[in-house]
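Checked the freezer inventory, then went back to the computational side. Two predictions to log before the end of the day. The first one is the construct we discussed on Monday; recording sequence and tokens without edits.
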Amino acid sequence: MQLKPNAYRLNETVKGVETMSRFALAVLALASGVYTYLGVRGLLDGSASFVFFAAVIYSAAVSVAIYAFWSFMLRFVPLVTSGVQRIALFLTMAVGCAMIIAMSSWLNAAALAGSAALEQHMAVTLQGYAEDLDQAHANALASQSLLPDVERAAERFAGLAADERESGALTGTQGSGSVVQLLTQMSAQMNQLAATITGSREEVALLFEQGSARLATMRELVSTPGAIEPRSDSFQAEAVQLSAVIAALQQTDVAASVKRASADLSAGFIAPVADGRSGDLALRQDQVMETVRVSVASQSLALTTAADEILANPAVEQRRFVPLSSAEAVIRYWQDFIPSWAGAISIDLLPVVLVLVLMIVHDAMRRDSASLEEAENITAAEMLRAMALYRQMEAAGIDVTTGRPKPEPAEPEPVEEVAEAPAEDGTVTPIDAAQRKRTDTPRPA
């Protein structure tokens, strides 16, 4: 191929970087194989020797496949000029890239960011457990909000009993009778309900403290540097203990107990028999006890409604920590590790850039070159003989392009001598300059 200066330089440059291209391709294939080995080793189970040899064989197969595939692409794609054939090669290259990503790139990403992805998984799970603990603690404390209402009801019944006993504020007759007995009984029931609510407060505080300690330990396991596998195992053990604490917190919720107790106040209301000595006093006692019954029913309804509102809060669902492999964690949390994915894929697909560069350079060389297919394999001796034959044909008067004798040059026509003749007006007409020159030139004697 007869090359123009620019095409010649491009051709020489391509030859110069060919060795470098092979070396770079080999290094990339080797690097991909190494990271593939690190990624696949975490997926295999079995003895140490089995895992080692299986990972080595798989990574070696990946390296050979990547090197062979890109070698084919580097050789063939730049040489194909037909549009249809080039599109077919591009489709083949796209399929090959997808297969390389499937068998190597995700394992490379697992090797690059596997530990960080597992830490991310533990951090996300830790956040979920912290939310569950806070929700269970809030539900348990919500029952404590019923305590002021219960204590006020107990104090009100106790105060009415005291007033009736001392001044007969309700019946008009002081002393301890049926009304005082009933009011004292209601106050005692309310005090028992308040004691139940108060007793759960200490247990809730203790359980929340235990859950907070478990969370602190889990945070240390997430942030502490070191091997991820033992930290993941310890994290799972702490997660199980924290789940038990959260379940215990939910069981300490006394809202259901308060609801049942408040319902019993109304449904189980038993008024004592009026013990007044006179009929008028007995009638007043019955009226007051009926008022107390209505008040107890109203208080019971209010406590039941408040307990229903607390019980309407969604219960904390049981959460379970699911251990993941590094490859699974990288796939699940891929959005958090886009740089690692980009690096892993670039190792395998960087030769695409080399293929495109060579394709563009070869297209430029083809545009800048003049093709002489019959002279591509000529030797120096053949060139010398061709030059000698060319000179002989020129000396013999043969046209090199047509192979025929050159035509003889035509002889110049004779020039007639024209004398000067006077014009009618007496002027002289000029004669040909060449003829004048021949006329004026003296002839030799």
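The second is the one RB wanted added to the comparison set:
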Amino acid sequence: MTNLLLKNAEVVFPNHSEQTNVLIENGKIKSISNEIVNAEKVLELEGKKLLAGFIDIHNHGAVGFDVNEASKDDLIEVSKFLAKKGITAWLPTLVPDSDENYQKATESIDGLMNIQSELPIAQVLGVHYEGVFANEKMCGALRPEYFKNFKNGNEISQLPRLKKGIHFTTLAPEVENGIELIKELTRQNWIVSIGHTKANTEVLDKAFRNGAKHLTHFFNAMTGLHHRDLGVVGWALTNNGVTFDIIADGVHVHPMMVRFAIKTKSVDKVSLISDSVLPTGLGDGEFEIWGEKITVVNGKTQNETGSIAGSVITMEDAFKKLDNLGFSNSEISKMASINPAKLLGIQNSHGSIEVGKRADLIVMNEQGNIEMILINGKPIY
């Protein structure tokens, strides 16, 4: 099928919603209008909402598979699951690990990226290295024994790179030679995000000026706001050029604090992430991940030291959480789709419903449940 008309949908745009028709041709949005057009196939969507597909920039795995250990086929299973939850594109996210495991993981990602365009799955965009260069005092569930130091510049070249795709990393700018590290990563076209950090405002300002303008899982693994000390949180909220992502699972951050942060920063500068880990989609229980046992009870993860060890939500869950907090569909769509696309530099092809962009779309019913998604214009039920 090369031509498909989505008829009478309530199309959710970044700043408003309206009932209209969307014509898809060869995997891209050909037109958006109320005019009558001929199409090989028509899907009547009256009473349904049509949204841009979600983009998850921070995802460690799901349905029993961990990105650090996953084969190409394992990643396909994760991508199938994510697609059912409205995620049309994602960044597999690696926690600190041995160079050998990094190499295997990136080979698996490369292998999937070579074949994924013909598969009905969420499309991998690249890789996210989380916490390779992090502050040990803010490690959270990460393993500090695998943290690296930046001394002679070779440490970056030692990180396995994909043959194609986006390279994203979360780091603490206060590590040894951290500002030089940020400069070099930026020069090599990495996207640098600040996280797992206790940096003071002077260091944060330097990091910002040298290319680190985003923060990872806001509030978590960073110093908080105090009335006599801005902390990382206060610095981000008061710097207009900074963006951040946040885990809206109600566990990592209290729902009212999620609302406060978004309202303070604005929906244009916040991205939603899942921070999903291996047990996502499997329910409560005991699991082994990153060399230790974690438990999931009532949707909350905990490792053996008592730290939260990632989340078990999907982007669909995050969407519903923010809907319950009073955000509009357009506002949530910004945070789940176009804002991550802008962060990754792919906003010309992804992240919103516009003529010429990829037809990566979500069909949602009146109850807010996903009924169908389209990836590159191909419906997946």
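For RB: The chain has two domains: 3-49+368-380, 54-350. The longest strand covers residues 3-12. Let me know if you want it refolded.
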